[in-house]
Amino acid sequence: MIQYETANSPFFEANKEYCETIEGQLRTMDIACSGFCNSFGYDIEATLERDDLTYYLKFHKHQSTQNGVVIPVDAINYAGTKIEVSGLNKKFSLTAGKSNLKRLFTSKHFRDKIPAPYFVMCNYSPDSKFVDLLVKQILNYKISELTVHSGSAKGKMHIAITNSLDLITDIERTMKALV
To answer: Taking the model in full, what pTM does it have?
Structure first.
């Protein structure tokens, strides 16, 4: 259940609407979520267990301000989503993200399909179906960091996901292709 710190603010109303949308989407899959929502942001956490895999999702938004000494500084808004999946095959290792330097070491079959500055490095040679699926997910969800190591996957997206059901379905499809 999400705790709401009610305020008479358009920022709170926008955050509350987002939280209620995500909570409603998760409820349709019988996924309980918890967290908080106020005028400055929200934190929503959800866990799903399916097919021997455990999925943890965290939807996060916060606003921070800085004091401008000479020039006023606007507030900094951050919205993002974190994903973690555990129970994967421990033999696989994969790292993806944004780095022009690491892109130099990306294999040709990834480099031909994913634009700069993205890179993908792994300890095996994946089939083209998995490469296409992974590249599609990285670009669609603007994944800035993805690490698969020791049977778990962790990813970070610097966008507010509007459809959590599509996200879960796409993560499951990608993880099943990896396993």
So the answer is: 0.86
